[in-house]
Amino acid sequence: MGMIGLFSYIGASLQEKVSGFINAGKTVIDGQAVYNCQEASLFWVSAAVLSCLLALLVWNVKVKE
Asked: Which residues span the membrane (predicted)?
């Protein structure tokens, strides 16, 4: 499995916990449970955009000698 596999399992576990925390509530309409995932989707899309922007800041950094 290695370190990459270990960290991918840790990341998936944390993602599930964070998504569950953000989307903690559900509404019942006409006896049917309705889940609204808009907040979780907005959070994860924002996190992806932020990570891309942070990566752009360091893509061409060279080591000082």
From this structure: 42-61
